[in-house]
Every structure is written in C-alpha cells, then in structure tokens.
Amino acid sequence: MFNYDLSIGTNSIKKKIDRSAVRAVILRGTKILVLKSDNEEVKLPGGGVEVNETAYDALRREIKEETGYNISKYKVFGVITVTAPSQDNKSVLFSMKSDYFLVEVENKKGQTSLQGYEIDLNFKAEFIEINDAIKINEKAIKNNNLNEIAHRELIALYEVKKLVFDAS
C-alpha cells in the first residue's frame, strides 16, 4: 500500500479545510478506466465522501455516477493527500485525502449521472493504456505545474504501473 503527502503552493496559509475522497483503480489487462475531460488530463473515477457516508458507499456511488458500472469487488490500494490553496479562496488551504481502491466491476455498464463540473468539463469514462494515461497527465503538468489533480493522479498511475507490470 502506498501513502503520499503532496503540498502545492502552501507557503504561508494558515486556515485549512479537510475533505475525504475515494478513487477507483479499475483495470482490464494493461488498460485502466479513466475519466477524460476538456482539461486535457485524466482522473480516476471517484469523488468526495458525503456526511454520514462510508468510504465504500461513496466508492459505489461515485463509480456508478461517473462510469455506469457497479462494483463486484474492492480492496484498499493506497492513499494520497494533496494540500493546496483553495480554488475558491486562495487564502485558505484545501486538503483532500484520497483513498485509492483496486476495484473490479460487473461487465454490464449502465447509465452515468454526471453532475455540475463533470458535465461542464465533458467527462467521458474510457479504458486506455496505463502508459497513455501517464503521458496525458505528464503533459498536463508540464502545461500547468499547479494542476493538483494531474499531480495526484500521476502518482497513482505510477503505482498502478508498478502493480501491473511488476506482476507480469
């Protein structure tokens, strides 16, 4: 299991908001299910854990909403915590602890139910080669080094690559 803490642009900010999230690593051979967006980055399916919601309930809900798949199995894979200035208020730090899970899904895919910014950014779930996902996020970071989503997911993708290719 991996555990990373990533801080981006946090120098002198004192006030902090903490949030928990879940992320799914869904594999088919050397391909991984990602959400492509108009931001020219990829992210793994997942999102915030709501009040009174367990991590598993959030994982199940987010995967269904963003990809249309239902979970058949899951296990803990790792944790990445990212702390950066809030996008809404640069004088506040936003810390997101993301729990990553290795997830197996049922073959049948249902409808997605994207919301808000997911619709605005044109999220599309797609299986792509792990190395291609890595290249997309490396390019996103090169174009915008403060892109915390691309940084976070790149770390996870490197861990997935180790898992898949070291196991071969």
UniProtKB/TrEMBL annotation:
GO MF assignments: hydrolase activity
**Alphabetical list of Pfam families matching this protein:** NUDIX
Q: Which residues form the Nudix hydrolase domain?
A: 17-150
Q: Which UniProt keywords apply?
A: Hydrolase
CDD domains associated with the record: NUDIX_Hydrolase (cd02883)
The record's annotation in PANTHER family points to: ADP-RIBOSE PYROPHOSPHATASE, DIHYDRONEOPTERIN TRIPHOSPHATE DIPHOSPHATASE
Q: Which family does it belong to?
A: Belongs to the Nudix hydrolase family.
Q: What is this protein called?
A: NUDIX hydrolase
| Species | Alteracholeplasma palmae (strain ATCC 49389 / J233) (Acholeplasma palmae)
